[in-house]
Amino acid sequence: MGGGGGRAARAAGVPPGGGHGGGRGRVGAADEDAQRALNAEAPKIPNLLGRIAGLFRAHRGPLITVVVLVLVGAALSVVPPLLTQRAFDDGLFPETGPDLPVLGGLVAAMIVVFVVSALIGVWQTWLTSRIGNRVMGELRVRLFTHLQAMELSFFTRTKTGVIQSRLQNDVGGVANVLTNTVSSVLGNTVTVISAFVAMVLLNWQLTLIAVVLMPFMVIAQRRVGQVRARIAAKTQESLSEMTAITQETLSVSGILLSKSFSRQQSEIDRYADENRNQIRLQVKQQMTGQWFFAMVNIFLSSIPAIVYLLSGWLITGGATDVTAGTIVAFTTVQGRLLFPLMGLMRVALDLQTSGALFARIFEYLDLKPAITDASDAVDVPPGAPVGRIEFDHVSFRYPDAEADARPTLDDVSFTVEPGQFAAFVGPSGAGKTTVSYLVPRLYEASSGSVRFAGVDVRDLRRESLMEHIGIVSQETYLFHASIAENLRYAKPDASDAELEAAARAANIHETIASFPDGYDTLVGERGYRLSGGEKQRIAIARVLLKDPEVLVLDEATSALDTISERVVQSAIDDASKGRTTIAIAHRLTTVIAADVIFVIVAGRITERGTHADLLAAGGVYASLYAQQAEQPAD
After folding, report:
1. Residues of the chain with pLDDT > 70: what percent?
2. Of 233, 310, 460, 547, which one's alpha carbon is 20 to 30 angstroms from that of 77?
3. How far, in Å, CA of 27 to CA of 177, rounded?
4. CA separation (Å) from 160 to 5, 141, 164, 471?
5. ABC transporter domain: from which residue to which, for each copy (predicted)?
């Protein structure tokens, strides 16, 4: 089990350490080569820059203000050293002695510059944060809305972790793109140019020395950063491993599994081993490059010293423009060049990373839902025979099926009249559940026509269609909320009396009333605090609260024990009264009373009739019924 801690991350379709790596505007503690490889995998989006600009177009006024503030702030950063030169030469050490009025004026000017710079910094931070987070919020809702419109097959073929990464990591990085990448590029560029101009104005000979020495310092600093980044990447991977272990073992399912097999100590040992690895990497990360840092510090200290030596040499040679103020101002400006210069050396990677982030977002926004309303789609007509369901020579093949594979449904035709209870039975994989997907148009028929209330479902608005259909699936999904909140998902404005009526109809009210908190009882994650039968009856109550004319039951009792099945079946029988019911059944005993039973084999309807008719026919249904009758009860 030692190597399995990353199962959760791998199952989610994301690499250890945080999804796509696109959740930041700038590259953080990650190997630059790995980041470049990740950027190269980003989709190619036409007119990417134009589309990115479009996201910020509504905020162009504040954005222009940000650009101006960045430029002004960067330019002001080199003013204090110039004022320092004047303070030394004209205020502290003029030939006639200290000139306090001049010195006071220069000091006041420096304080004003510091105050203005600070105010600009606060204003800039507020604006960038506001713009970035607003764009991020708008984009997140836009992407979430778009994903809600995607067809069911998109979610069956896409891992949830990948979708979450787009919504959280990639969209979450939008604010950082503005705050870090754009501000950094503009600010660092202006700072470097301004500082260089200031250095030339102060003394061009000293500037030559600084320019010659600066690349060596930058290279040394980058070398340190690369070594530490590789260790940081391993540290992040270890953290991801620990997170995965926590998610696996401390979830309800994980705890249940470990207790069932008495593997708690094994899980503790696995966590402890990874914790020791994390400690080792943290120490290594702290110590890695200490010699490099020492050399960099020596180098940083050496440049001013070399400037002092050169200044002395120039003064000895008769230079009159090298003063104490010049030397102090020059070393101050030169000292502020390092980090902006290093930032500019990362510009290409930063911009590439930001572009990859937006490309992944636009890739999802560009997805076209396979099932959409037609431009002339209509609501279910008033007075139409709601509840009549017709399949007219319907064939269906799943989008990801092999080209030479047989269709899941092949030339299927049947009619279910309003109020009828129709059951679909057959071997596993025969295509029964697909019928339940095509009725509410969760999937689109490949050929033929599916009609609801006499109208082709492709001509109906999906929202109008779904208003008349209620679905109870085999895997009941309950939110981690109260029973009342789960029920009101079907009808948010339902009164307490309506909740109770639906619960009574689903044969679950007495059970709910027996709980200490009644309808306010929290069901736990995915309803873990309830039994399978209780969850299923709450799901039935939820559908009954919606009060649809058509009820679709997709093997709603197949996962239950015999006793729970009987209770749930009783609830289903009551719920089906007066409604058209499509029941996908595994256990044939649950559909004996159906008005019509369709037997599906290999995608085709091979038999149809009542329970008695099909037994008398002695075909597939009779054979399946006999096999299940021979099986012992649960």
Report:
1. 82
2. 310
3. 11
4. 19, 17, 6, 22
5. 389-627
CB 340 within 8 A of CB 192: yes
Interval 222-240: pLDDT, tens: 666 666 666 766 776 777 6
Q: Which of 273, 253, 479, 462 is nearest to 371 (CA)?
A: 462
Position 54: which residue type?
G
Report the amino acid identity of residue 165. Answer: S
* Residues 173, 42 contacting (CB under 8 angstroms): no
Mind giving me the DSSP string for 572-620?
A: HHHHHTTSEEEEE-SSGGGGTT-SEEEEEETTEEEEEE-HHHHHHHTSH
Distance CA(504)–CA(511), nearest Å, equals: 10
Please name the residue that has the structure tokens 């002395």: 312
With 0-12 / 13-18 / 19 or more C-beta atoms within 10 angstroms meaning exposed / middle / buried, residue 580 is: buried
Q: How far apart are CA 412 and CA 396, in angstroms?
A: 9
Alpha helices in 366-479 (DSSP H): 432-438, 462-466
Helix (H, G, I), strand (E, B) or coil at 414: strand
Secondary element (H or E) of residue 396: strand 389-396
User: pTM (2 decimals)?
Assistant: 0.69
Distance (Å, rounded) from C-alpha 241 to C-alpha 3? 9
- Contacts for 497 with CB less than 8 Å, ≥ 6 apart: none
**Rg value, the chain, Cα:** 35
Q: How many residues does this entry show for the chain?
A: 634
* Cβ proximity of 166 and 150 under 8 Å: no
